Structure formats: C-alpha cells, structure tokens
Amino acid sequence: MSPVCSSNQMRSSGSVTDAELARMLAEGAGKILVDIRYQHLLSGYLLGDVGDAMAQAWIGAVLAQHRPTDAVLSEEATDNGRRLTSDRVWIIDPLDGTREFAAGRNDWAVHIALTIGGRPADCAVSLPAIGEIYTTDTVPAVGGELTGRMVASRGWASYESGHVSQRLGLDMVPIGSAGAKAMAVVRGDADAYVHAGGQYEWDNCAPVGVAQAAGLHCSRIDGSDLEYNRRSPFMPDFVICRSELRDPILSALAEIA
Question: What domains sit in the chain, N to C, each tagged with a CATH number?
C-alpha cells in the first residue's frame, strides 16, 4: 500500500485544493440538507430519502467537475469497481444518520474523505444541524483531562463496547450517527468510541481521518490498522479513543476476543 502524501497542494484547472474541496463538499451538502427540512414540509422516510438523494447528486456533480479522474465510493451511488484500480478515491456518506435527520434530531453528519493508497488524507465531517465542521487540516489536537465517558448508539450498544465501558468504568453517552459520535471524541466531550457489529467504509473513513489528525488513536478492535478502498467496503469494527486509553481499551477487548 502506498504511503499517504499531503494533497493540499493538488489543484485541478486552478480550482480548490483537496483539503478545501473536502471542506466545501461537507459544508455545502450540509446546507442543502438543512434547507430540505425547511418548515417541516417533508417528514419521515420521504424526508430521509430526499435528503440522501439530493446531497448525493450535488456532491457527485461537484466531484465530477472538479476531480473528474478520481474514483468515488459512496453509500448512495452504485459502486462500478473503478476505485479498485485508483490510488485517489473519495469515500463519502452524503447523509450519515438518515434516521436522525428524518426525525428532526441534530446528531447526523456529512462525511467526505479523500483516500490516497487506502489511507485517509484530506477529510471533513460536518454536523450541519449545529453548525460545526471538522477538517483534517484545521482540527486542533485533543487534550485536557479525560471525561470518563464513551459514546454509543442510541438504544443499542455492542457487547464489545459494553465490556469496555464496564471494565474501564466509562459512562455510556447515547448519540445517533457515527460521525456525530466520533466528533464527540474529537471535541473532547467523550474519551472513546468502540464499534463492533459492522459498518461500511463510508460510515467511518472521514471520521477516522479527522480523529487521526486530532491525535486520537484509531484502529480495528484487535489493534491492527484501518485500511480503506478494499474490494469489500464492509468494516466490521473499529476503535477511536484518546491515546492514553489505547492500551487499556485494546487490552479489555482482547479479553473477549
């Protein structure tokens, strides 16, 4: 696998850099999604379906114009396989947390990640409902005292995350989308996010890229590296946590492996 290189100087026909484009895609799609909820004229499944479709259409059109030779893997687009022979692949989730979005909640996100050689390079995660955006080139390092909290899905927690919570004495904080959970750790509101039970690459690639840029530990639950743009985009598990909790969390997970 080729090493990750900085792509901030990449430009296409005098256009924006990769880092700028990632941020603008996350921010622009977020504005579209917020506007779709205007005056609650749409609701329920229809609202979620329209949000997914319109955010995907806009992101896809922008990438086609500004990065026509790059490959794309998206939850809301057909995977034509071209990405498997491409070094530069955008992995996106136009609307992470469709259920939360459709329910009028705030804990949903937009994920934009440029991967180079299977590694996150320039990434952005926006939380449009609360007006926040996190990017690999601007996110500050996470510091300060530990909070004693870890994030988990609302209404459900995996056996693995429950074991870590009990073993390390971390209180569970329920949050909706994967991006919203990961950014809670990046923001310093929680110390860890342990997921098992399966996701897809678009669910966590951009959050992992931003988390790594913030100095957090990111890996599979067995401690191995996270790799993207694999033939199967299924991602069984991962850990995002404060670096000082890396060993305790991985040791706790090894107890139940």
Answer: 18-135 (3.30.540.10), 149-254 (3.40.190.80)
